[in-house]
Specification:
The chain is mainly alpha-helical and 182 residues long. The protein is 56% helix and 0% strand.
């Protein structure tokens, strides 16, 4: 392939189509023939999707591995969706597992302005294996910390109730001699 026959836009479109369809051999050939380094692995389409979004949405783990090797950055599209969210929506468990193991910058609790967090998306589509996988990502610890705060505040309320009960136990009713009965 000679880059002289392709515009940058055409190369970017071909990159995205290869990622979308899992055409790894074609993309590797394009890379090998790209002697002018015109192939931009971080190119975005009109909606802000990268090749990573396309490969994740279609469950192409082998493509994701190659894109990572090529330095493709993990990003959100214009609507705030990241590749993980697309993998979740399309129920690609192996893709979800790969992404959460490979990209520490993922935040499973991030909620875009319009939409759900990856964790809420997984819950909505009812995929327990994906939900379980998401809880293994380091960003899930923020949720666990929040739950601990809630549990501790519940414990504080329990302590206050225990104090009230103990105070009630320490109240001794007055005896007849002590009362002001005449």
């Amino acid at each position: 392939m000679s880059d002289d026959f392709y515009t940058q836009e055409e190369l970017n479109e071909e990159l995205h189509e290869c990622a979308r369809h899992g055409e790894l051999d074609i993309l590797k050939e394009m890379k090998a023939d790209d002697d002018t380094n015109m192939l931009d692995f971080n190119a975005l389409d009109a909606q802000g999707n990268s090749a990573l979004h396309k490969a994740a949405a279609n469950g192409h783990v082998d493509m994701l591995i190659f894109l990572k090797e090529m330095g493709t950055k993990y990003s959100r599209n214009l609507s705030g969706k990241d590749p993980l969210t697309w993998a979740i929506i399309n129920k690609h468990l192996a893709t979800v597992q790969y992404l959460i193991l490979t990209y520490p910058e993922i935040d499973i609790l991030f909620k875009p302005e319009h939409g759900l967090s990856p964790l809420s998306t997984a819950h909505d589509i009812g995929e327990p294996d994906i939900i379980e996988a998401l809880f293994k990502h380091p960003s899930a610890s923020a949720l666990e910390a929040k739950n601990l705060e809630i549990d501790e505040s519940d414990d504080d309320e329990d302590d206050d109730e225990d104090k009230d009960e103990n105070q009630a136990d320490n109240i001794v009713p007055p005896t007849i001699e002590e009362s002001n009965v005449e």
